[in-house]
Amino acid sequence: MLAARVGPRPPAGARCPDCDGELRGCWAGYERWVRFSKRVERLRIGRSLCRGCGKTHALLPSFVVPRRLDAAPVIGAALELAAAGRGHRPLAARLSLPATTVRGWLRRARAQAALLASRLWRLAQELGALAPRAPPHDRPLAVLVRAVEAAHAAAARRLGEAGLPDRWGLLVAVVGEALLSHRSSPWAGALPAARIASDG
User: Fold this and answer.
1) What is the pLDDT of residues 71-110, one digit of tens each?
2) Distance from C-alpha of 172 to C-alpha of 138, rounded to nearest angstrom
3) Any bridge partners for residue 30, and if so which?
4) Rounded to whole angstroms, how far apart are CA atoms 30 and 127?
5) What is the enclosing helix (H) or strand (E) of 48?
6) For the residues of 79-128, what is the DSSP string, one character each?
7) Three-state secondary-structure class, residue 147
8) Which of 22, 32, 120, 137 yields a CA-CA distance of 20 to 30 A from 56?
9) Contact 167, 149 (CB under 8 A)
10) Which of 193, 194, 188 is nearest to 111 (CA)?
11) 8 Å CB contact between 134 and 117
12) How confident is the model at residue 26 (pLDDT cuts 50, 70, 90)?
């Protein structure tokens, strides 16, 4: 997709996340920039129309975080390193990003970590995994990272690796805008109807 600079098309049987109606068609909706640390890529994002409610939906690949310039693997790397104890300034230098940007990610992710981790554990359990007892006094981001890993492992066992997003793409597919939302954001408490589809 990055080579062609065109986002995904709707998978067969795609359903509307609002009313579960059938999604039909795909046309170029808008251009979207995605930053991978030192490089920025441009994608043309398509839109699909729901035959039930009439709403249109942007078709984002799993590496695109809604309402964020930076790609899911970049944000995921920052969350993982911060969970291991790294501060936002060393992380920003390592990722070649502004320190204020990384600090904002970590603050918002910490505030949402318990809620997001619970959603990921619920997915993992629905896919057949058992949720272990969390270590006492664990850091919020460590809890979130462990839940991401568990959900991805459970999805790979149940669904297979083919077409499955990486773990940070899966996180985006499951929680959407809630990943880095402010507590006051209307997306902070929303649970999107995740659709796991191939980015190929």
Assistant:
1) 999 999 999 999 999 999 999 999 999 999 999 999 999 9
2) 23
3) 45
4) 35
5) strand 39-50
6) HHHHHTT--HHHHHHHHTS-HHHHHHHHHHHHHHHHHHHHHHHHHHHHTT
7) helix
8) 120
9) yes
10) 188
11) no
12) confident
